[in-house]
Design a protein that fits this description.
By secondary structure, the protein is an alpha+beta fold. Helix content is 32%, strand content 19%. Strands 15-12-14-13-17-18-16 form a seven-stranded antiparallel β-sheet. A five-stranded antiparallel β-sheet has the order 5-6-10-8-9. The protein is globular and about 70 Å long.
């Protein structure tokens, strides 16, 4: 009898654990629950133009998603082809972006072009208990828009907006101008819709979604120090939630969802169909880039590199918010809000010039940020199509740099000799004016001066060791980040997990590095474990 009692107790514990920690989606291997061909065809009949695609043949990936890093137009090719299966970084077609792992390509994709396509897809997934993932152009470094056996809602060809509304009223406030962008539009389309008429706080990658993962992850911009993050520009979202409802999320409607969508990550709380962005008056900008010219073969003289690191660390905490952009250990790509004369007369520019052995690779000014970037006809974007991409990020607290500048310099100098290559944001400024709990992004994002991005495990581990609690920048985080929920959201994690249960109680939206991520099959694992115990008890009774 004691054995029976213990067996029941253990089985109860197993069921309790699995109900909390896992979820049993219906998978194609389970014929008892997986929809029949007729049922899939019924869904197809409800999708506009019948654009439901069977993308389950993994072998097709290399055939239709062949654009590589040697192709300068890879980012544009991969965003539009493959019926949603193509990723900008090909290792993310595998589980957790591990090149040696199993394929992680969804079973079907719904090529959504209107709201009803999304609603029907979600209703179908709810009826048949199928995991849902969401994708626009596939830039996520962790593969969050993929899922083996899932139904993919592919947003790239969703209807486009791009209209500017003036004197827009919302939640008791009037905004001079706002831009409405659709759930599938990318930054190039958004920038061109605004042109030189206004300033739009947007992303660097032109093929990155303007209303999806970039924004939901926080939205770092070259102009964030002057205007704030992307999430600080949002007035309202239009979202299709996990029950198939269309809702508005703003600070006066579904404000908890509004909070979660601003930093809680994409693909977790619903499918964004449109965003209203705050626009700013047009101001002149200059774009410039430089490289330390004596840090090269054969000697790799570090004199100027060390001077650059010292200048950067000493200047960053009090740098004029008109400055923004990116830096490496031996170069910089910066934007300055001002005319050419104002830029060249600014203190930071003069100090860079005074470093000595540097070369200005580019210098372009215009009436707007858009013009300074080369718009409309000479815009450039990131190169994608790599077989493997091992990016990782760490936030560097302002307080640390202010109080321990020599230690910060020492870390950067160490990096020169132990992997070297980084690509980093200078942040702070207006980003720090927003309360740490006002949005869902990690509170550290509001208290940091740098986001350092590495591509070598030695470098990121050095930063983790030196700053174990500083947090990771969500949109550029390592695919294998340890303790990722806390590193991505910090003290905001608990509220996000609570809201996930409210807005998606069945975890219909499920993806790696997403709030509430569930892995594996609870039914299978629970049943197998229970079966083992039943066999054990049976054998004991047979023996007795």
């Amino acid at each position: 009898m004691l054995l029976i009692f213990l067996s029941y107790a253990i089985m109860a514990e197993v069921v309790q654990i699995s109900a909390k920690d896992s979820f049993d989606y219906c998978l194609p291997s389970n014929s008892s629950c997986w929809p029949s061909k007729d049922q899939w065809n019924e869904l197809k009949s409800k999708i506009s133009s019948g654009k439901l695609h069977d993308i389950s043949n993994d072998d097709e990936y290399s055939k239709v998603c062949g654009a590589s890093e040697s192709d300068p137009g890879a980012a544009y090719t991969l965003e539009d082809t493959g019926e949603g299966r193509c990723m900008q970084y090909h290792d993310c077609s595998k589980k957790k972006c591990d090149e040696g792992a199993a394929w992680n390509i969804p079973e079907y994709s719904v090529e959504a072009s209107e709201e009803n396509d999304i609603i029907e897809a979600i209703k179908f997934a709810n009826k048949h208990n199928i995991q849902v993932v969401v994708k626009t152009t596939g830039h996520n470094y962790a593969g969050a828009s993929m899922g083996d056996g899932a139904l993919l809602i592919w947003m790239r060809h969703f209807k486009k907006y791009g209209d500017i509304k003036k004197a827009y009223e919302k939640c008791g406030e009037t905004y001079d101008a706002v831009l409405k962008v659709g759930g599938g539009q990318v930054w190039e389309e958004a920038y061109k819709a605004v042109g030189n008429d206004y300033h739009l706080v947007g992303g660097g990658g032109l093929t990155v979604s303007a209303a999806g993962g970039w924004l939901n992850g926080g939205g770092l911009s070259a102009s964030s120090r002057l205007y704030g993050m992307g999430i600080d520009q949002v007035i309202e979202f239009e979202v299709i939630t996990a029950d198939g409802s269309k809702v508005i999320a703003s600070k006066c409607e579904n404000d908890d969802l509004f909070w979660a969508l601003r930093g809680g990550g994409g693909g977790s709380f619903g499918v964004t169909t449109s965003v209203h962005y705050k626009l700013h008056p047009t101001l002149p900008f200059c774009e410039m880039s430089f490289v330390v010219s004596d840090f090269k073969e054969p000697l790799y003289d570090t004199t100027t590199v060390f001077k650059w690191i010292s200048l950067l660390v000493d200047s960053a905490p009090t740098l004029d918010t008109k400055w923004g952009g990116y830096w490496t250990l031996n170069s910089g790509i910066f934007y300055y809000q001002g005319t050419e004369d104002e830029t060249k007369n600014s203190e930071f520019y003069k100090k860079i010039n005074d470093l000595g052995n540097i070369s200005w690779a580019s210098f372009r000014c215009g009436e707007s940020y858009f013009a300074a970037r080369g718009g409309p006809n000479n815009l450039a974007t990131d190169q994608t199509g790599q077989k493997q991409f091992n990016i990782a990020s760490r936030l560097i607290p302002m307080d640390f740099v202010e109080k321990q500048p020599d230690k910060m310099k020492g870390i950067l100098i160490w990096m020169i000799y132990n992997g070297f290559f980084t690509f980093n944001y200078i942040i702070g400024g207006k980003m720090m004016d927003v309360a740490t709990d006002a949005t869902a992004v990690h509170p550290a994002m509001r208290q940091s001066v740098f986001q350092i991005e590495t591509f070598d495990e030695r470098l990121i581990q050095k930063l983790r060791d030196e700053l174990p609690d500083s947090g990771a920048g969500f949109n550029h985080a390592a695919k294998n980040e340890t303790d990722w929920e806390n590193q991505f959201w910090g003290s905001n994690r608990a509220r996000l997990e609570s809201l996930k249960k409210k807005w998606d109680p069945d975890n219909r939206f499920n993806c790696w590095h997403c709030v509430g991520y569930l892995q594996g099959s609870s039914c299978t694992s629970s049943f197998s474990t229970i079966l083992y115990f039943l066999v054990f008890v049976f054998c004991v009774f047979r023996r007795d």
